[in-house]
Design a protein that fits this description.
Elements lengths: L21 E7 L5 E8 L4 H10 L17 E4 L6 H9 L3 E4 L11 H11 L1
Parallel strand pairs: 3-4
Antiparallel strand pairs: 1-2
Length: 121
C-alpha cells in the first residue's frame, strides 16, 4: 500500500542532491535600495556571510557630518540566529532584530522581509 509514496521516477530530495549551485545574499535599506550583495556557493551557511556583507556596506550620504557607514539596526530571518552574528553586530553598534530559532515566529519579520523580496523581483 505504500507503493504510491515512491516510484521509479522519484529521486532524493532536491536539496539533498549535493548539486552545484549559488546563493545570493543581499542587504537593502528600508526602501529596498541595495546596499551590499554577495554570491556564495549553495552549501555556504547564511550566518557565515552576514558579517562580511554588513562590512561591505558603502558610506551613505545623509545629514550633515561624516557619512554613515552602518545601519542602526538589522532585521534578519532565523537563518542568521547565531551567537557569533548577534555579537558581531553588537560590536559594530548595530541592534540585531533576528527571530530566535525554536522560540519566536518569523511572521513578525514579514513586513520587513518583503522589502528584500521586492528588490529581488
Amino acid at each position: 500500500m505504500r507503493g504510491w509514496l515512491r516510484g521509479p521516477l522519484t529521486g532524493p530530495n532536491p536539496t539533498d542532491r549535493g548539486k552545484a549551485g549559488t546563493k545570493h545574499h543581499l542587504v537593502t535599506d528600508r526602501q529596498g535600495l541595495p546596499l551590499a550583495e554577495s554570491i556564495t556557493p549553495a552549501n555556504t551557511h547564511d550566518s557565515r556571510e552576514a558579517l562580511p556583507l554588513v562590512d561591505d556596506i558603502a558610506p551613505v550620504k545623509g545629514r550633515r557630518g561624516p557619512p554613515r557607514r552602518r545601519p542602526g539596526k538589522l532585521h534578519a530571518d532565523k537563518g542568521y540566529d547565531y551567537r557569533r552574528v548577534r555579537e558581531g553586530l553588537r560590536q559594530r553598534h548595530i541592534q540585531p532584530r533576528i527571530a530566535r530559532r525554536g522560540v519566536e515566529s518569523s511572521k513578525g519579520l514579514g513586513r520587513y522581509r518583503w522589502v528584500v523580496e521586492r528588490t529581488w523581483s
